[in-house]
Each structure stands twice: as C-alpha cells, then as structure tokens.
Specification:
About 15% of the residues lie in helices and about 5% in strands. It has a two-stranded antiparallel sheet.
C-alpha cells in the first residue's frame, strides 16, 4: 500500500466528475481509499462538493 499524502497540497492528480454516474465509474478504478473513516484532509463549511481520496495503481 502507498502512503497517503500528508496534506491536500501534496496530491498529484485530481479527477472531477459532473455526474454521479461518472464519479461511480471512476471509483471502481481505485485500488485503495484513504477516506473510509472520515475526511482526513478537511474542507471549508461552504463547500458542498463530495470528495473521495485514494490510490489508483
């Protein structure tokens, strides 16, 4: 298993999806999830977007 990034700024790639169906398809590519037990990277209260963090490959 790869180690998760220490902060949001350390991510190398982001995949953004407009539709839930697209996001679901991308999530099937993940080999490991880093947010199964909460949101380790946090976000502002005004942000209503959904995020999933993990590793592909």
């Amino acid at each position: 298993m790869a180690e998760s990034p220490a902060t949001r700024d350390k991510f190398k790639i982001a995949i953004m999806c407009a539709l839930p169906l697209e996001a679901e398809a991308v999530l099937y590519l993940f080999d490991e999830f880093w947010d199964r037990e909460g949101d380790p990277y946090g976000r502002s209260q005004q942000n209503s977007n959904e995020y999933r963090t993990g590793r592909i490959g």
